[in-house]
Amino acid sequence: AIPRRELAVVQYSSIALILVSMLILVIKIPPKLYFQLWGYGSKWIVPQTKHYSWLKAADVTGVGLDNVVSCPVDEDYRLDADALEKIILDFAKDHTPILGVVAVVGSTEEGAIDPVQKVVALRDKLYNEQGIYFYLHIDAAYGSYARSMYLDEDNNFMPYDQLESVWKKYGVFQGDGEHVSKYVYDVYKAFPEAESITVDPHKMGYVPYAAGGIAIREKRMRDVIGYFPVYVYDKRSGAPATLTPYILEGSKAGATAAAVWTAHRVLPLNVSGYGKLIGRSIEAAQRFYNFLKGLSFNINGTEVEVNPLTDPDFNMVDWTFNIKGNKDLAKMNDLNLKFYQKASFVGGPVYNNDFITSHTDFATDGYGDSPVPYIESLGFSADDYHKETKVGILRACVLTPFLYDEDNFAAYAPKIKSAMEEKLTQILD
Amino acid sequence: AIPRRELAVVQYSSIALILVSMLILVIKIPPKLYFQLWGYGSKWIVPQTKHYSWLKAADVTGVGLDNVVSCPVDEDYRLDADALEKIILDFAKDHTPILGVVAVVGSTEEGAIDPVQKVVALRDKLYNEQGIYFYLHIDAAYGSYARSMYLDEDNNFMPYDQLESVWKKYGVFQGDGEHVSKYVYDVYKAFPEAESITVDPHKMGYVPYAAGGIAIREKRMRDVIGYFPVYVYDKRSGAPATLTPYILEGSKAGATAAAVWTAHRVLPLNVSGYGKLIGRSIEAAQRFYNFLKGLSFNINGTEVEVNPLTDPDFNMVDWTFNIKGNKDLAKMNDLNLKFYQKASFVGGPVYNNDFITSHTDFATDGYGDSPVPYIESLGFSADDYHKETKVGILRACVLTPFLYDEDNFAAYAPKIKSAMEEKLTQILD
Question: How many CA atoms lie within 13 A of B22 on its CB side?
């Protein structure tokens, strides 16, 4: 026989367990504790170069900032496909669902073009080998219109080896040489593999604000998000499908759509229209990049170097100024911030300002260690970057198609140089 | 001594309980089960006359449709404050948090004006008696600009007994009599008690789309939702506060704000400007309502009645046509839908159409039994309404200020009547 004392322990502990179980089932576990115990749900994977609105959207929709996962980028600020594979396999291992993966074509701060073709190949591989599939969204808000460079007048995607001759025929570029790498071409070729693509006419479509777009491969997707106002739609009356049910705003000015439609009629979405316009903006950016590469200043004896960030994938050129030999990152950040202030509305009315540009920070919390190679190339260390938590960058989107012309650029270059020199002199004197 | 058999039962049951507890704590409770066990969270209370975007917003933000609670409206389609009190007390009883209460001023389908003053009084009472407080939002997207009728040229809210003489001075109304009830006046007087108010310049501000607004009493509220793009904002540069961080779109055309600013300069937001414009639209609506009240048709021997829904709170007039003596609600719904089809784009190009109007359904799932008094006044029963699940309504927003003039209206009235007659003849013949 078991002693009464031992039995009592068993009885009391079972009563305690019953009470705990009842408590758990009857008293509500606070949502916060629930998520701490069992995790925060499904993941949305974006590159470090993501537009800030991805965070805002995750916050607003209730997906939550904790579920946005940053994928590292390489030294060209392009999504690192190997790092992406590791992230996906880790999530697959512990059965964390993946809401989707975003590849950026024309990143906000660098105009960088992510390797969509590699992401697609990775997805094919993972699907065939392990049955892992993920939703692919291309954030081509900035870069999408450039796809028109690769479409002939019948809107067929052209082979790479025919591009230069067709571009010559349409006068897309002026100079000789390889204007777009096979890498960038392959990115645009892979577009049809994505489930959805952001297309912003108010960026490289050169149409003013209010127009934004998303292309979806499966039209029925929109029915999932459709809300039909009963005082506008009567389905019995056979009202045609409009945007209203599928956009956040609901009602919206038709002028916006009309403006985009008209622009696409005037400039067709192929090599004869937007392709030509955007090709010229790319050539202008390349001229500006080459101009910066060879540039330096002597400001009353102080030598100032100009250090472009990357050979641009598209039409955006980033750079920094640094005093030759300066090893203090804080000092370099200060110089570039002050330059921006003189080259923007911060310094006063801009009507008489001969050089206006924008400024951003690559900060550790968003970019991780991706800026380290650039920082090291300037003579700083990773530690300097971690200590300062950011590197300030000057940034120019070369939207004008007119600087593609060699003579035009040659006329502007000395004016840009002297405007820069004037600002640097004001700062350093 | 306790028999071994009994002890074994106790032991096994305690082991089973340990396993269940461990399962609950270690294996994840699916979110759906979690919510089924412990409820769906906090509630957002809106009247049955809510704009459909309240549902869309709850869905998009992750609040969830299950957390939107519909408060019944009275026979004038105004929020029923007694029903609201009951809803709030029920939630307070089981400690369900209330995210907020919406009162609508100018409902989408009726132009009805909810008793904001009663909601405020209810909140004061509940707070003093039981410490219950709730966030109050006024959805005055449609009705907000009408508040300018009650502000003198120094923008002070005027006493009720001075209104008619001031309105006479500014020529706000043409006819004599009480143009706005003390009830509606008290609603507008209570506006400052709300935490936030929707104001849509693209509605009664007569400014085209793209402008929408929300007025907040506590400016710091916006910091909770602010997202600052690093490539636009550099706080060290002292950039002034703009809308960008606080709106969903982020960047937006300045033309929108400029248009609203200009309109408010041209027509001040008081009795001398918008007050006059909107007063005239209200008088025009009253003329149209009185015109409909006395209207009937004889279509080749078939008598058609016109039955306005309510004496309008604002400038929106709803009505139905019915064949005299018809007791079949489906038949009446069909008549009004067909009338709408002839009085809209559905029937073809509208340029030569002398009467255009809109149509909506009051359906059981959104409106509950609120339309029953109207339906019964037409000779139908609540059962008819439940069987059909809706009553179709014709709806006119009288936006033109010109029909406020007696002679103008008298010139239009026979044309409106004959346009209606023509459509009814086409339908009934």
Answer: 6
ipTM: 0.85
Q: How far apart are CA A244 and CA B209, in angstroms?
A: 13
Query: Taking CA atoms, what residue in B is nearest to A339?
Result: B237
Q: Using a CB-CB distance cutoff of 8 angstroms, which residues of chain B are in contact with residue A248?
A: 56, 60, 248
- Chain B residues with CB-CB distance to A232 below 8 A: 358
The neighbouring-strand residues paired with A340 are none
Provide DSSP, A295-314. Answer: -EEEETTEEEEEEESS--SS
d(CA A364, CA B305) in angstroms, rounded, equals 72
Q: For A28, name the nearest residue in chain B, comparing CA atoms only.
A: B38
CATH class for the domain made up of B280-428 = alpha beta
Predicted confidence (pLDDT) at residue A3 exceeds the cutoff of 80: no
Question: pLDDT by residue (tens digit) across A27-73?
Answer: 566 666 666 666 667 999 999 999 999 999 999 998 889 899 999 99
Query: Taking a C-beta distance cutoff of 8 angstroms, is the pair B123, B136 a contact?
Result: yes
Across A260-270, average pLDDT: 96
User: What's the whole-number average pLDDT of chain B?
Assistant: 92
CATH architecture designation of domain B40-272: 3-Layer(aba) Sandwich (3.40)
List the catalytic residue out of B12, B52, B170, B231.
B231
Whole-number pLDDT of residue B243: 81
Question: Quick check: helix, strand or coil at residue B175?
Answer: coil
Best of B44, B203, B248, B388 to disrupt the A interface (most A CBs within 10 Å) is: B248
Per the model's pLDDT, the better-predicted residue between B20 and A337 turns out to be: A337
Preferred mutation among B37, B38, B110 to probe A, highest tally of A CBs within 10 A = B38
- Residue corresponding to tokens 């509220």: B221
**In this complex, do A227 and B108 lie within 8 Å of one another by their Cβ atoms?**
no
Distance between B151 CA and the closest CA of chain A, angstroms: 30
Averaged pLDDT, B100-124: 97
pLDDT for the residue numbered A40? 61
Query: A10 vs B10: CB contact, 8 Å cut-off?
Result: yes
What pLDDT, on the 0 to 100 scale, is given for residue A23? 66
Selected catalytic residue, list A52, A209, A231, A351: A231
Nearest alpha-carbon partner for B145 in B423, B406, B399, B415: B399
Question: Is residue B126 predicted with pLDDT exceeding 90?
Answer: yes
Q: How far is CA B129 from CA B83, B101, B122, B123, B132, in A?
A: 18, 19, 10, 10, 8
8-state DSSP, B149? G
Query: Which strands, in side-by-side order, build the sheet including A296-299?
Result: A296-299, A302-308, A316-323, A390-397, A358-363
The C-alpha of A359 sits at a distance from chain B's nearest C-alpha, in angstroms, of 6
**Which residue on chain B is closest to A394 by alpha carbon?**
B231
User: Looking at residue A368, what is its pLDDT?
Assistant: 94
Q: How far is A99 from chain B (nearest CA, A)?
A: 15
Of B63, B85, B53, B58, nearest to B72 by C-alpha is B85
Question: What's the token pair of residue B167?
Answer: 């309105």
H helices of B131-253, where? 163-170, 182-189, 221-225
Helix (H) or strand (E) holding A378: none
From chain A, the residues in CB contact with B1 under 8 A are 1, 4
Instruction: Choose among A14, A28, A395: nearest Cβ to B14.
Output: A14
Of B38, B236, B340, the CB nearest to A28: B38
Distance CA(B257)–CA(B244), nearest Å, equals 12
Residue of chain A with shortest Cα separation from B40: A31
Domain positions in chain B are: 4-28, 40-272, 280-428
A231 a catalytic residue: yes
At B208, the pLDDT band (50, 70, 90 cuts) reads: confident
The per-residue pLDDT for A5 is: 75
Exposure string for A23-40, b = 16+ CB within 10 A, e = fewer: ebeeeebeeeebbeebee
